[in-house]
Design brief:
single chain; alpha+beta; Ribonucleotide Reductase, subunit A; 2 domains
Amino acid sequence: MSVASQRLMENVTYEDLYRRWEQGNWSAYDIDFSADVGGWAGLSDIQRRSAMWIYSMFFYGEDRVADTLAPYITAAPTEEQSYFLATQQVDEVRHSLFFHRFFKEVIGVGGESLEETLASTLPQLNWGYRGVFDRLDRMAAELRKDTSLPKYAQAITLYHLIVEGSLAQPGQHFIEDFFAKEEVMPGFSAGMANVSRDEQRHIGFGVKVLSELLAPSHPASTECRAAVVELLKEVVAFTPAVFRPPNLDRSYTECYGFTMEDIYTFGLKLVRQRWRTIGFPTEEMPPGVFPFDPAEPEESIAANQVKMMLGGILGPVDGAVTPSTDPELMRLYFDMTARAADPAAANGTPLVYQWRFSDAEPWTLTIDNGSTRAEPGVAANPAVTIESTWADWLASTKPDANPLKMLLSRKIRPHGSPRELLRLRKVFG
């Protein structure tokens, strides 16, 4: 952690965060939505559909985090952290009630009960979103049984850094900015300003907790860092697809004056900034966590992620898009694959891996002298050769895939000695 970041974290106390909560208290029932009904009616059809998509994710998310926060309170290692987390649970309930009122009174969907209104959000929740929040549910169950510091570090990472810091804030930032400028829904804008202020406080708490747990001087630092890396590897593959709009229709964001690339860029900047503040920069994490060139600008990474999303390479295997075999997109994919490889697992010996696709050009990945490179073509003597279709290979790498089933069904056919096949698993973690 830099000296500036360390001082910043030392100057923010849990008592200060609690005081901010008391000073910033607000009521979900004091928000006046009377003018918002006309503002909603004045939006275009695509703007209403887009808002329904984005705010369904917010509403469902607020409810899920309210339901899953209790184990965090009991697992917190200090009373100060436990007390703050109790205030956060109150916040999440208040946010849920705010969205319940907005959906019912302004959008005109749902019903009198929270359950009825929440049910109206379910069709809007995509693969990436469900992947992250399913993991949040499992994390709460794990934390009830395991209150160790490494598990707590994982839980804080998932909740405060990923759900609130990487997913909620980017979408919230752009659409909230639109409504504030246009002044078409004053009640909603006022409520969202309150929600944003609360979320900033929550994220600040998460950054502070992790800066302490992951600090080299902390006795559990090594175990906590390993646990955080494990969690990130498990979840990060879902996160780009959270902002995959219905039918990959760009107008879902552009109708509010921003692009998919804008959201991804904003999110990546937040990710890099916060992990630097924590003292565990993304460029210092093991291979495979954030497989990007640390010197590459966020705008460039975001543009490439969107290209791969639209090309069916990132995101779900749902039949909506046939994975593109465009050479540029395959190059982007295998560049990420090369960056995800751990050269240390090669034990100093050169390694070559070969992919042979029945419907796309072959690719090789070479690990030599501590570096990796990927290039199209056929290698002379690969240690392992993998045969499949391009689509099946991509499907096998998704975080919810069943690789064993794909091996048994012969959709993925690896060739190599048992020793090299075992080493392949170590190379890619």
